[in-house]
Specification:
Elements (H helix, E strand, L loop, with lengths): L5 E7 L10 H23 L8 E7 L4 H16 L4 E5 L6 H10 L9 E6 L8 H5 L9 E10 L6 H25 L9 E4 H6 L10 H11 L3 E12 L5 H28 L4 H34 L9 H16 L9 H23 L16 H16 L12 H16 L10 H20 L3 H17 L9
Parallel strand pairs: 1-2, 1-4, 2-3, 5-7
Antiparallel strand pairs: 4-6, 5-6
Helix pairs in contact: 1-2, 1-12, 1-13, 7-8, 8-9, 8-11, 9-11, 9-14, 10-11, 11-15, 14-15
Length: about 475
């Protein structure tokens, strides 16, 4: 039996415009962006699949002419090596990622293919990715999606990336894996997944109505009866945001979008033909618990109610509310990543701090406020691509006469790395700390409440308020993670 035909899509969104940056900073930023997408194109071009059964399309939604030329040049280099690869740039750039994918899937050549593998511009699939995912579709015509897990090249870079890794380990190893095993449904992660094109078409395709187009198509496909499979042992390399500013914007989109979608999908969920248990799972577990109830609980209890009770002698919260339940919930999140156990307390404190951002995002999404429609792509440093380029250079020096293409490290890639290093040595970018007012205000409230608790001999309340207040202060002064360049 001939292998299935697959379209491999690399989605390069409009991260930011280089027009706003001058001089050497603009050149360095351009080189960094090139390093990010070059390694992704290289990884996709080396997927182990028959050449006549695969097409790689690079969807460039950037608005900078220089960057577009660099991407075209990278695509041309791989086409000269015999790779079936094309470059697409939209003339009418609306709808963000959903609009980009919708435009690409409407092309005539897509009709000749059965599956589409989707990768964001900073993801690097292994050569055997398709061989590990596509065979799951055989013999199961109701299977619509096979999702792989993310693996992070910079998970140990700083405290912020370590805490993110804890959260995402729980998401993949518990949420995705359990839902996939027992319900044949979970939220599509937007990348590192393979869709049956028929499932996308019958579910309405990509819609531009929310900032979480991946969750949107997953819910609609589930309501149409399509099944999903999550593969925890298939990992795709990517990068975590290393600055609090980038992480905060990412979390705002990840929590406002689901509330937008909940408003839009609730009638369809209630009237759908799926079982009552699946409806309950969609409404309460998929939408409300992690995206609404937990941020509301953390923000109101730990950031508002608890510190205010220190100023009211008659009010006292039981120890199990402020201590045992939060630690138990954080312990469950730590379990999938046992090496992260020493970070249990920092994780609890940081998640309570992030509840401010998540609560604000939830409100803006639920009531359709202006910030709910912001679609800001998470900025990446290109750290993974730099390490790839160095490793590949070493391999190429040992096998100059080999004709087989290994993970690509072209002359343009070498030049990119060298220019990047020289620019950083000659004109290092100035890093600056931002000030976050909401976090600083809450730090003042919590530290004042901690002082009040100490004077009133409230015991364990003082320690919690002190450390939570210090966490808000550290975050408010932008002292966690890398600073913005």
């Amino acid at each position: 039996m001939a292998p299935s035909s697959v379209v491999v899509t690399i989605e390069k969104p409009n991260k930011f415009s280089l027009v706003e940056i001058n001089g050497s900073d603009s050149t360095l930023l351009l080189e960094k962006q090139k390093a990010v997408f070059a390694q992704s194109i290289a990884a996709a071009s080396q997927l182990d699949w028959p050449k006549d059964r695969i097409l790689i399309q690079v969807l460039d939604d950037s608005d900078d002419g220089n960057l577009q030329l660099l991407i075209k040049d990278e695509v041309s280099l791989w086409r000269e090596k015999g790779v079936n690869i094309i470059y697409r740039h939209r003339l009418i750039r609306t709808g963000y990622k959903a609009g980009n994918l919708k435009s690409a899937m409407a092309c005539d050549y897509v009709k000749d293919y059965e599956f589409v593998a989707i990768f964001d511009a900073d993801f690097q699939p292994n050569p055997d990715f398709l061989k590990q995912t596509v065979p799951h579709f055989k013999g199961d015509p109701e299977l619509g999606l096979v999702q792989a897990r993310w693996s992070f090249v910079n998970k140990d870079e700083n405290l912020l990336t370590r805490l993110q890794n804890i959260n995402l380990c729980f998401h993949f190893e518990v949420e995705q894996q359990v839902n996939g095993a027992f319900l044949n449904f979970f939220g599509f992660n937007g990348t590192a997944g393979v869709w049956r094109i028929k499932a996308l078409e019958e579910s309405g395709g990509w819609l531009e109505r929310t900032t979480v187009e991946d969750m949107d198509i997953a819910v609609r496909a589930h309501l149409n009866g399509w099944k999903f499979i999550f593969l925890n042992d298939v990992k795709v390399l990517c990068e975590l945001p290393e600055s609090y500013e980038a992480y905060k914007k990412q979390q705002h989109r990840w929590h406002s979008g689901p509330m937008q979608l909940f408003r839009l999908c609730l009638p369809a969920i209630v009237t759908s033909k799926i079982s009552v248990s699946k409806k309950a799972n969609l409404i309460f577990l998929f939408f409300l618990l992690r995206k609404l109830i937990l941020p509301f609980y953390s923000f109101t209890l730990f950031c508002i109610i608890l510190p205010l009770t220190m100023f009211i002698p008659e009010a006292e919260l039981p120890l199990w509310v402020i201590c045992y339940i939060p630690i138990f919930m954080s312990f469950l999140n730590i379990l999938p990543a046992l090496k992260s156990f020493p970070f249990l307390v920092p994780y609890l404190l940081f998640e309570n701090t992030m509840s401010v951002t998540k609560f604000n995002a939830m409100i803006s999404g639920l009531f359709q406020l202006g910030s709910a429609y912001e679609w800001v792509v998470t900025k990446k440093t290109g750290r993974s691509s730099e390490s790839d380029l160095v490793a590949l250079a070493e391999r190429e020096s040992k096998s100059l006469n080999e004709e087989k293409i290994t993970r690509r490290h072209s002359e343009s890639g070498l030049e990119t790395l060298n220019k990047l290093k020289k620019q950083e040595e000659i004109t290092p970018l100035k890093k600056r700390n931002r000030l976050y007012r909401k976090e600083l205000v809450l730090a003042f409230l919590l530290l004042t409440a901690a002082a009040r608790s100490l004077l009133s001999a409230h015991g364990v309340h003082f320690y919690f308020l002190l450390f939570q207040g210090l966490t808000f202060l550290v975050v408010g002064l932008d002292l966690i993670g890398e600073q913005i360049s």
